[in-house]
Specification:
The complex is a heterodimer. Chain A has 8 helices and 15 strands. Chain A has a domain at 3-40 and 150-297: Aminohydrolase, N-terminal nucleophile (Ntn) domain (Glutamine Phosphoribosylpyrophosphate, subunit 1, domain 1). Chain A is α+β, with helices and mostly antiparallel strands. The two termini of chain A are 31 Å apart. Chain B is of the alpha/beta class. Chain B has one domain: Pectate Lyase C-like. Chain B contains 3 helices and 11 strands, in the order E-H-H-E-E-E-E-E-E-E-E-E-H-E. An 11-stranded mixed β-sheet of chain B has the order 1-2-3-4-5-6-7-8-9-11-10. The relative contact order of chain B is 0.09. The mean pLDDT of chain B is 96. Classes of the chains: A alpha+beta, B alpha/beta. The interface between A and B is medium-sized, with 17 and 16 residues.
């Protein structure tokens, strides 16, 4: 199974409530995925600054002097905000790649969840309500966000196996389904220079799209390519800095419902995830067609 | 009219209350408020009662229905009226995948669109869809009739047995062993009755439809067809 929720706001006045709306949607999808949960949230960027979100099983120890140690390694001032097992490091945008590379040396036990100007990813093992509470997602504001509740099939129930997966700057992907050719696609992508953190099938889909974007494809084209190159069952929801996209495989047995009003575009694995959104009773609600790419960009 | 607030009273209480209505009852009219996309609403009914759901439903609404009339004033999630035995289920909005799957009898009316696998393995149910149906609809359909006022998606009626399919609009593609067939007077009569019972008699005329059925080449095993199974 697995549950997916997503929100792309058109009305800026809803931005302070994004975290609260996504949390409600995520918790409603607990039945579809009680193993682990995660959320990617895109915030308004701070000029010249980028963010690295990292996770550690030993956060107290690992994060204590991380800002200073990593700052020294890359020659920049870093601000660290710690939330439970995760920490968001804010640093100059032009030092982001250097920081991402240096953290492997500086804190080998810390794992990078996301990197970019807007994205922050929080994910952990446990019930969605507990994961959301640990990171206080309900009080986060942002422009768009994607959440996932996981019922694991293709790889172990671990923090790194939880969704969303981020394999490129400000990019993320969540998945309901299972891929059958992920090993061969992973090999091809490794040969092309992509790196992988897990044995998970969804990470391959995320890297596949990131690779296409690196090669110059537009988001719509990269998502279209999943229909020919990835074999298996999938409903994917993809987040980028400016946008939000949805694609389902041609069989389309993994459920998906979308709703649109003047204020937002919402995605849910089921309609019940969206019942508390403002104006849902008069929203345009539809089921995305199989093998069809949908995306919204600002 | 008996009103049941699903949010306040819960799903088990709803279904056990409706299951307690056996045979003749004076409580024949029910409305369910606050469905909020919940699963398994009004499943397994077995009494001649009218149930109106005021909003959209999740998985498996009105499954295994016998005798009852269930009307959803919204859209229905996957598997609505699955394995229905008799009675009537009417969806005012759209229905998600496998609506009316394996149904043995009764009538399912979808006033909006139905998505993929509508009427898969239907075994006697009648289905009237006012809008379009998605891919692989009526897959292995055995008996009963399906009427579609709009268009049909890919692979309509794949591996069809004896169900009768009537489509007014376009058919993206026919599945294996499904062919267009001649519309005879008895089919026009059947269609007129289904359109009327399906609350669609003002919307379409029987003459506007094409009939599709089984070429009967696959369902008795023949070694020459091995690659088509």
């Amino acid at each position: 199974m697995c549950g997916i929720v997503g929100l792309f706001l058109k009305d800026a006045s809803l931005e302070p409530k994004l975290g609260a709306m996504l949390t409600d949607m995520l918790i409603t999808m607990t039945d579809r995925g009680p193993d682990s949960a995660g959320i990617a949230i895109y915030t308004r960027p701070e000029k010249g600054k980028a963010k690295l979100t990292v996770q550690s099983a030993n956060a107290a120890e690992d994060f204590k002097t991380l800002a200073a140690d990593l700052g020294k390694a890359i020659g920049a001032t870093i601000n660290l905000v710690s939330k439970d097992t995760h920490a968001v490091l804010t640093l100059p945008t032009d030092r982001l790649d250097a920081a991402r590379a240096a953290i492997r040396e500086v804190r080998p036990t810390a794992r990078v969840m996301s990197a970019g100007e807007e994205i922050e990813i929080y994910k952990e093992v446990g019930l969605p309500k507990d994961v959301a509470r640990r990171f206080d997602v309900a009080h986060m504001s942002g422009t768009h966000g994607i959440g996932h509740t996981r019922m694991a099939t293709e790889s172990a129930v671990t923090t790194m196996g939880a969704h969303p997966f981020s394999t490129g700057s400000d990019q993320c992907l969540v998945h309901n389904g299972s891929l059958s050719n992920h090993n061969s696609v992973r090999r091809t992508l490794k040969d092309a220079g992509m790196t992988f953190e897990t044995e998970n099938d969804t990470e391959v889909a995320a890297a596949f799209i990131s690779h296409k974007l690196q090669e110059g494809s537009k988001l719509g084209e990269a998502m279209e390519a999943t229909l020919t190159d990835l074999d298996g069952f999938f409903t994917f929801v993809v987040g980028t800095k400016n946008g939000f996209g949805v694609v389902r495989d041609p069989i389309a047995c993994k459920p998906a419902v979308m709703a649109e009003t003047d204020q937002y575009v919402a995605f849910g694995s089921e309609y019940r995830a969206m019942v508390n959104l403002p104006g849902i009773d008069t929203a345009r609600v539809w089921e995305p067609e199989p093998a069809t790419v949908y995306f919204w960009e600002r | 009219m008996q009103t049941f607030d699903l949010e306040a009273q819960g799903l088990r209480a709803l279904n056990s209350t409706l299951h307690a209505l056996k045979g003749q009852t004076n409580e024949t009219a029910w409305e369910i408020i606050n469905p909020k996309g919940s699963h398994a609403i009004a499943v397994g009914l077995d009494a001649p009662v009218d149930v109106t759901v005021r909003g959209s439903t999740g998985y498996y609404c009105a499954g295994m229905n016998k005798q009852a009339t269930v009307r959803v004033k919204g859209s229905a999630g996957p598997g609505v009226a699955e394995n229905m035995m008799s009675g009537t289920v009417i969806i005012d909005g759209d229905a998600s995948q496998y609506a009316g799957a394996t149904g043995r009898g009764g009538l399912l009316v979808i006033k909006g669109n139905a998505s993929s696998r509508c009427g898969i393995s239907m075994k006697g149910i009648d289905i009237v869809v006012h809008g379009n149906i998605g891919h692989m609809s009526a897959f292995m359909a055995q008996s009963g009739s399906m009427v579609v006022l709009g268009d049909a998606g890919e692979a309509l009626g794949d591996s069809l047995y004896e169900a009768k399919l009537f489509v007014r609009g376009s058919v993206k593609s026919l599945g294996a062993d499904c062919i267009e067939k001649e519309m005879r007077p008895e089919h026009l009569e059947l269609l007129a009755d289904l359109l009327k019972r399906g609350e669609a008699d003002g919307k379409a005329k029987p003459e506007e439809f094409k009939r599709y059925g089984s070429a009967r080449k696959l369902y008795t095993f023949n070694i020459d067809n091995a690659s088509s199974y």
